[in-house]
Amino acid sequence: MVLQLAPNMQQPAVLQWPYRQYDDGDGVPHITLLHPGGYTAEIMLYGAQVVSWTNEREEELLFISTEAVYEPPHPARGGIPICFPKFYDNVNMEENGFARTRMWRLEDLMHDIAFPVPPRDHAFVDFILDNMPDNFPNWPNHRFELRLRVMLGPTGDLTMISRVKNVNIDGNPFTFKFAYHTYFPVSDIRATQVEGLETVDFVDYLQMHERFTEGPNPITFDNEIDRVYLNTPDEITVRDRELRRTFTIHKDANLPEIVVWNPWDLEARRTADLGDEEYKEMVCVEAAAVESDVTLNPDQEWTGTQRLSVEYF
């Protein structure tokens, strides 16, 4: 299968279709996106979840738990699960939405009018989820199209563009939440800080969703944290002081919020698909629209973009 390429790329990238086999004998198809610069991204069709992103030195730039489960009905613990149309609902197993636990399809470039052709030095692949679930609470059979483009740029940046369209034929609007639930790897959570959210208001999910204001310094970690920062800047950084590495989240205005989460030791031990000590090696910082719901009328569309870059200092 040939990768969808921007025209006139001097070196062809390749779209591979490997199958990772599991103990139960079932396989989940993966797409490996290869850029001529040596960068890679691996995406499962199950959940359209990015589970690997590497640079030209083959360094892994996403966290994946050693306890992760890669098969239904569970999303893999790590990478970049897509939260849609819900976020944080303890009542239902699919507490962050069904998009993470459905099989997506590859979208044929010849029939994909949702996204423009990217620059010629980008490698990309498009996915679509348009099945109509009939067993999801509070989602009364709304008809939708959810499309995703995953793209690697010439410096290794990882871009994800999602488009949601209301295709209801009954005239009904629907409302949804959305997040790129990104797991970043860190050398030591205590040597990690998040910059760009100073003095920003946030909703604390550990304090009955009460609203507070962040202090004047970057966020550091010495305990569990689960917050949604509101009306955030378009660029947020995750700085690993020990590795001297900085991830930058570049996002658009349709993703006005940033979620920051680390389970710390107690919650890590309660989480079956996360190692007891792995909270020290990860932090979730994610572009989102979860406190500000999105409502679409029939034929209306919404697009949200996140681009990840990495630098060493």
- Please list the strands of the largest sheet in the order they lie side by side: 7-8-9-10-22-19-18-13-16
Radius of gyration: 19 Å
The major β-sheet equals: 9 strands, antiparallel
The proportion of residues in beta strands is 35-45%
Order of SSEs: EEEEEEEEEEEEEEEEEEEEHEE
Write up what this structure looks like.
This protein is mostly beta strands and 313 residues long. It has one helix and 22 strands. It has one helix at 264-270; strands at residues 15-16, 19-21, 27-34, 40-44, 49-54, 82-83, 105-106, 123-129, 144-152, 158-166, 174-180, 183-185, 192-195, 201-204, 210-213, 219-220, 225-229, 235-240, 245-251, 257-262, 282-296, 301-312. The protein has a nine-stranded antiparallel β-sheet with strand order 7-8-9-10-22-19-18-13-16, with no helix packed on it. Strand 4 (40-44) and strand 5 (49-54) form a beta hairpin. Mean pLDDT is 87; it is low at 1-14 and 16-26.
